Automatic annotation (TrEMBL):
InterPro entries in UniProt: AGR/TXD, ERp19, Thioredoxin-like_sf, Thioredoxin_domain
Organism the protein comes from: Caenorhabditis elegans
Protein name, as recorded: Thioredoxin domain-containing protein
Keyword Signal set for record: yes
Superkingdom, taxonomy of origin: Eukaryota
Alphabetical list of SUPFAM superfamilies matching this protein: Thioredoxin-like
């Protein structure tokens, strides 16, 4: 019985390791934030942005960070995945982890905390006006814990650059039809 239990534990561990390896092979730059996103290395981001005339989405996080892991998990489980994928097509998407982070002070406008999400123009300059409007911590304006807040900032950046995203527009709210009452006959 013990050997069967041990075999089951080893198999489960190997399967989990295989999934992690498989994910990193599919898209090593995704780091759990979406294999279907066209992530670019930080070193290539500005050149790619200049070539494609797109703003840069710069996610800075650490593999050991609890808040970073929580954000990643929220994204994996949220209904925002489809919208994130669609909006990402209009950005040069950069996902830096651990030592990949840019170390210039420009990319630490209000501190070295993580996770940080910065929006940059195609030259790599920080777009300071695009911060988390609903930030829980006012001293950490580039900290996002909600996919909805990230999507809203992405839409704001695209609007700033005149990019029209039909899928991101919301039509008039549907108004419930009033039930037609019986007409009184005279």
């Amino acid at each position: 019985m013990r050997s069967l239990l041990l075999l089951a534990l080893v198999s489960a561990s190997a399967y989990a390791s295989f999934d992690k390896i498989k994910d990193s092979i599919q898209n090593p730059l995704a780091r759990g934030f979406g294999d279907d996103i066209a992530w670019v290395k930080w070193e290539d981001a500005i050149e790619t942005a200049l070539d494609t005339d797109k703003p840069i989405f710069l996610l800075i996080h650490k593999s050991w960070c609890h808040a970073c892991k929580a954000l990643k998990k929220t994204f994996q489980q949220s209904n925002a995945k489809k919208a994130f994928k669609k909006l990402s097509e209009h950005f040069v998407m950069v996902n830096t982890e651990d030592d990949d982070e840019p170390f210039e002070e420009e990319y630490r406008p209000d501190g070295k905390y993580i996770p940080r999400l910065l929006f940059l123009d195609k030259n790599g300059d920080l777009l300071q006006e695009f911060k988390n409007k609903k930030a829980e911590y006012k001293n950490y304006a580039y900290y996002y814990s909600s996919p909805a807040d990230i999507l809203n900032s992405m839409k704001d950046v695209l609007k700033h650059f005149g990019v029209d995203i039909p899928e991101a527009k919301r039509g008039d709210k549907l108004k419930p039809k009033k039930p037609e009452g019986k007409k009184k006959e005279l």
